[in-house]
Prior knowledge:
The chain has 348 residues and is of the alpha+beta class. It contains ten helices and twelve strands. The chain has a six-stranded mixed β-barrel with strand order 7-11-8-10-9-12, surrounded by four helices. It is elongated, with a radius of gyration of 25 Å.
Amino acid sequence: MRTAIFLFVVLATAALPRPSAAQQAPADSVYTVQSGDTLYSIAQRFGVSVTALQRWNDLEGTAIQRGQALRVRPPQAERPADAAGEADDATAAAPDTVSTDTTTADTTTMEPAATDAPATADTATTPPVPTGPPPLYGRYTAEAGDSFVHLALRLGTPADTLYALNDSIPSVSPGQTLRLPRRFAPPGHTVQPDETLYSIAGQYGVSVRALRAANALDTTTVQPGQRLRLPGREAPTVPPPGDWAAPDSTGAVAVYPDAFAGRLTTSGAPYDPEALVVSHPSLPYGTVLLLSRPDADRHTFARVIDRGPLDEGVLLDVSAAVAEQLGIDPDTTPTVALRLVWLEGRPE
């Protein structure tokens, strides 16, 4: 019960609600940029092109700022025919890198390199915009009972990474499509200078026709930096429920002596034997761990509040409450598996 309450508090304090796209696009078709947004992700969300957003908002590049108001529909002065020409332009991929070394899960994505898009859609004098690269994330359809924590344990990635990749949504709903880290995306190819569609097709043993079809290309022209799907390549399979990824580390643990009760830890918090807390040499204070004893099939969550242990060969010092949850005798040093669940703060 104590473990369930602790986990609920951790997730409840981290998962702040975020307005939906429908709430952020009022009748005047203006969207307010949120933390983590890029011009590319906004274009994908509203089904328009990056070029159109640039033109409607007098943007010379793709840089935007949190709190900035963007027009996401054409102004009345623009003819519908002109807007239609832009609507089907493909947008570039959203970023694949999210910083997890932050004090909150409100992280900033790394925006892909901007292209020198013209201010107007004069396709008669400029080459056609190539189909955007495939997303650099994996994709997963949530099932009943899924949560960021459950998925994190199955994928071997911190839950706050999944939280940030999915726009800090407060909860996971069955049927919802979630972004996963890049390593769970289908294999792809980034076009290098001097490469052609023909040389790439030969490199992977596929036909040019199949490569064009997989990427919806109208031409055989490719550009350096463009991401291409590779036909016939599948994304790595997400492990089934209950099948956890390998632990981040394993080692012996020791229990805090009873005399330490009430003493200040290096984080400034007093040690409470009844709290699910541990020491660790380097993980940020507040980091949530899942500790397991495979030999006893016992598990518990715990939070890092202290530096240590001092004894060589010992992975963690654990509180009396953690020891009780894992069935650890204070006079023994059993082997425990450690999995990162949620990173909080920064290492010293």
